[in-house]
Amino acid sequence: MVYFQNVDKIKFEGATSKNPYAFKFYNPEEVVGGKTMEEILRYAVSYWHTFTMDGSDPFGAGTMQRSWDKFSEMDLAKARVEASFEFYDKLDVPFFCFHDVDIAPEGSTLRETNQNLDAIVSMIKDYSKDSKAKLLWNTANNFTHPRFVHGAATSSNADVFAYSAAKVKKGLEIGKELGAQNYVFWGGREGYETLLNTDMKLELDNLGRFYHMAVEYANEIGFDAQFLIEPKPKEPTTHQYDYDVATAHAFLQNYGLADKFKFNIEANHATLAGHTFEHELHYARINNMLGSVDANQGDPLLGWDTDEFPTDLWTTTLAMHEILKNGGLGRGGLNFDAKVRRGSFEQEDLFHAHIAGMDAFAVGLRVAQNLIDDKVLENVVDERYKTFTEGIGVDIVSGNTDFHKLEEHAMGLTDIKQTSGRLELTKATINQYLLQAFATANVR
What is the largest CA-CA distance in the chain? Predict the structure, then answer.
């Protein structure tokens, strides 16, 4: 069955194209900094937002019109697999991602749920043979069902802890079978509402135990995927234990897991934490913890996780600057953990949204590479911190001083000369590079 009858394979047509079903800036074969765009960006489609979301929200019923929704239960799950691979192939993306409950319905028992998963995983495996699209990462949904009302690995109920472990065990097995390059842990309900009824120490200790067991089982079955934690500060709990990259990094260090995990960083989660996207990427990068990215953006006027498709070129440029400085994303990728708006309910809108996001990061990639080639931001930073490359500054950074020597130096200072940070000039320069990128694209 063909689900997207009105859409052919999406191709690159350039900046002047008026075709809504064409890439304007993303050319998978274009070489940037020695690699093709496809190799650097490693785009992935999120199964949940693209094939299972119905457009409902706390104030309204679903609006999405999906041709596969005429089916139900396992027939619906199979139809979604068919539709998904048609979508991947027409969009020409190399990867996709899913939660366990995205691909198969839960049964009345865990055994029945696993049987449903086995049937769909077998189908995905068969479809993957004839498609370039492979599994970037999978994960277990340990937050939607009422059993997770008090959390999963941090639940106050030991039976829920065990159930959560069994689901992750199955997820690791699925990841190995499908050749996933990563496995993600998003602690949707790993947090608390109030300390009045919470044993935080026990919950954090249990979470550490849970992660250690996951690492041990992955080693046992020979699943060598990169393990990723996806930080989020709030929603659905008030206080998430993986608030941001720095908080989660401290947790990993405290429980002896820092060498076993990296981070899957989502732009909208960074916003909710009061950070910029590039802040989270930068902290992870300088600590060698940047693993993968959930590419989306939030609405600055709203205080919740809106998961919009990324179109802000400033953000994509600064994000790609961090990713390129990281040497790329390695086994990770840019997963569009984003959903079309409730008003964009037609099936073809899924293509328009992904094209917009892919073009936005392609522009960001080109501009970021130009900034790096010209050492624009590096020169700004070097100039600002140049006093640490001479005199007393060298002694400070080399550890060849103490408070006695620093006091002696300070006593001899009669005037401290400051240098302007020139922030406005730097922002104007980035705008200049963005506009130059568009000018160049228009003459290609």
Answer: 82
Residue environment code for 323-334, b if the CB has 16+ CB neighbours within 10 A, otherwise e:
bbbbebbebbbb
Indicate whether 56 pLDDT > 60: yes
Catalytic hit among 99, 249, 269, 282: 99
Distance of CA 202 to the CA centre of its chain: 29
Q: What is the pLDDT of residue 441?
A: 75
Determine the Cα–Cα distance for residues 30 and 50; give it in Å rounded to an integer: 27
Q: Secondary structure of 78-127 in the HEC alphabet?
A: HHHHHHHHHHHHHHCCCEEEEEHHHHCCCCCCHHHHHHHHHHHHHHHHHH
* CA-to-CA separations, 106 to 53, 101, 143, 172, 336, in angstroms, rounded: 16, 7, 13, 17, 25
- Strands 43-46 and 95-99: what pairing? parallel
Q: For strands 239-240 and 191-192, give the pairing.
A: antiparallel
Which tens digit of pLDDT belongs to each residue from 296-327?
999 989 988 999 999 999 999 999 999 999 99
CA gyration radius for the chain? 24
Catalytic residue among 49, 92, 100, 102: 102
Q: What is the pLDDT of residue 300?
A: 87
- 344 backbone dihedrals φ, ψ, rounded to 5°: -95, 70
Q: Is 102 a catalytic residue?
A: yes
Mean pLDDT for 59-79 is: 97
Q: What is the pLDDT of residue 444?
A: 56
> In terms of residues, how long is the chain?
444
The pLDDT of residue 36 is above 60: yes
Evaluate the omega torsion of the peptide bond into residue 146 and state whether it is cis, within 30 degrees of 0. no
Q: Looking at the predicted structure, is the pLDDT value of residue 172 above 60?
A: yes
